[in-house]
Amino acid sequence: MIDKKIVLHFPRSLVNEPIVYKLIEDFNLSFNILKAQILPDREGLMVMELHGTREDYNRGLAYLKNSAVDIQLLSKDIKRDEDKCTHCGVCVATCPTDALRVKKDTREIIFDSDKCIACELCIDSCPTKAMALHF
Ligand code: SF4
Ligand code: SF4
User: Fold this and answer.
1) Residue 84: nearest ligand to its CA?
2) Residues enclosing ligand 2, CB less than 6 A?
3) What is the topology classification, in CATH, of domain 2-73?
4) Pairwise CA distance, residues 29 & 70, whole Å
5) pLDDT at res. 123
6) Which class would CATH give 77-134?
């Protein structure tokens, strides 16, 4: 089980949608809302702590991202050491959000930190230890 703090930025079009309710119903997550600023017909912001299995957490975050909610993870971040990365591609299959993917023309491995949900799956899979957690 894991606990993660995240910040959600809701676009105006989603403020009245039951997005957070679905995290409980569809993804078995529980949460504490630490801060919320959501007004009808305006953009919203919510700081919350999510609790659940890693698999449910990853599915829940993928759902949020697909719903156009902007997510910011608090306290930690995944970074790639460009000097250590050999572009071997091993990490691509482990990444659930396509934050790591192959660039078609050059076969380079792209790391898109905006898509990364800090699930940490790539850290163990990388043979050169290029992927690391930063607090
Ligand atoms: S597994 Fe590591 S070395 Fe290989 S492409 Fe991914 S980050 Fe780079
Ligand atoms: S931590 Fe690694 S595997 Fe997980 S989403 Fe980020 S880049 Fe992909």
Assistant:
1) 1
2) 78, 94-95, 97, 99-100, 116-122, 131
3) Alpha-Beta Plaits (3.30.70)
4) 19
5) 92
6) alpha beta
